[in-house]
Design brief:
261 residues; alpha/beta; 4-stranded antiparallel β-sheet; 26% strand
């Protein structure tokens, strides 16, 4: 399981398996994500979508297969024919290449919006605070919240908190952005403001892997759509093809059901 030769996708997963207490969460998952590509993962609850993202970000360890990010094997080092787990320090280094936005915003409640965004760059990247704050203000402008730098999370709407969470992830200058159902905890009227920021990121070429129930977003913004069910990739292809003319009956049934919801 050596790094693959160029040209390679930014993310490459092959044969990824993961079980929890004997229950299979991921079963032989293989997905590629090219640089600058937006890949949307759809599927019913419990299909393994979130677990796969957590394996990429190394919040979970995978049991089988391999995941490479920018040609580097994630979580393990090859020692001859044996794979040895990486140290926490090496895992943190690899994790810094990704930014993850969760269903819940996970902001520090005792820090302002500006402080939430600068915390990582100052403490992890060792940036000068003045530089980190200048960059954070630019990110606040990008997500449409220039006037909320001094606001605490409790003073912000759910949509605003999620936009701060996106800015916080971007502040770490990631190669890859992972979104785990970023609008699922929002009131319906707030969903659009978060999706708008994500559309803007796609427009500037940010590589994104998005787990979502927003079918319109997947169809309009996704370059490719991956449908998962019971821990497996059932279908993968161009967004327009999968969303309008899926090849697999299981995909068709799922899309038919969600269109009625």
């Amino acid at each position: 399981m050596s790094a693959l030769s160029d040209p390679i996708p930014l993310v490459r997963a092959r044969g990824v398996g993961k079980s929890f207490h004997g229950s299979i969460a991921l079963d032989d998952v293989g997905i590629d994500v090219s640089r600058g590509e937006v890949v949307c993962i759809i599927g019913p609850s419990g299909s393994g979508k979130t677990t796969f993202l957590r394996c990429i970000n190394q919040l979970e360890t995978y049991d089988k297969g391999a995941i490479w990010l920018d040609g580097e094997l994630l979580g393990y080092r090859e020692m001859g024919d044996t794979l040895r787990p990486l140290s926490e320090r090496d895992i943190a280094r690899q994790r810094s290449k990704t930014g993850m936005v969760f269903q819940r915003f996970n902001l520090f409640p005792h820090l302002t919006a500006l402080q939430n965004i600068t915390e990582g760059p100052v403490r992890v990247l060792r940036q000068d605070r003045a530089r980190a704050e200048s960059s954070a203000m630019e990110l606040l402008k990008r997500v449409g919240l220039s006037g909320k730098a001094s606001a605490y999370p409790s003073e912000l709407s759910g949509g605003q908190q999620q936009r701060i969470a996106i800015a916080r992830a971007l502040a770490m200058q990631p190669q890859l952005m992972l979104f785990d159902e970023p609008t699922s905890a929002l009131d319906p009227e707030l969903v659009g403001e978060v999706l708008s920021v994500m559309r803007d990121l796609a427009g500037i070429g940010m590589t994104m892997l998005v787990v979502t129930h927003e079918m319109a977003f997947a169809r309009e913004v996704g370059d490719r759509v991956v449908f998962m069910d019971r821990g497996r990739v059932v279908e993968s292809g161009p967004a327009g093809q999968v969303m309008t003319s899926p090849k697999e009956e299981r995909t068709r049934n799922f899309l038919r059901l969600v269109s009625r919801a």
